[in-house]
Amino acid sequence: MEFESEDAAKIFYDEYARQVGFVMRVMSCRRSERDGRILARRLGCNKEGYCVSIRGKFGNVRKPRTSTREGCKAMIHVKFDKSGKWIITKFVKEHNHPLVVAPREARQTMSEKDKKIQELTMELRNKKRLCATYQEQLTAFMKIVEEHSERLSKKVQNVVRNLKEFESIEHELLQPRESLQFGPSR
């Protein structure tokens, strides 16, 4: 089977799970290393795997719960194809537990949660790109300010040097006049 999108595959398998009598769980995905988009997804029975006890690591568990995991292997694997469609590449139909789920035990699909995670991930990537752009602009601005500061510093040094020269010349010009005004002493 093939689907137009990953969500269409999730919706299909979730509906199939409800009809057959189990709860669908999003199990894992494989992402592109280049751009982070999802290339493949594994969807399965919520009784897949076994619960690993955390007792002992963090002290006693207050209310130990019975495990809902029973090592069920039922699942589908969907993969994004070059054609742009999502194709089921693996299907395991058999469950190792009774199938009849009471309506109150059934839950909503994870598609809304996955959509939100995907949206937030893309937003985070965009914010990181924006931060990198701002950092480049700030670095360029600081370089311009530094260059301007150096030019201004050189101009101030030239003004100071010119003032000292002017004072020196002025002092030389005024000194002979003072001796002429008072004349030789008698």
UniProtKB/TrEMBL annotation:
Residues 110-137 form a coiled coil. This is FAR1 domain-containing protein. It comes from the Eukaryota. InterPro entries: FAR1_DNA_bnd_dom. It holds the Pfam family FAR1. It comes from Hevea brasiliensis. Keywords: Coiled coil. Residues 12-100 form the FAR1 domain.
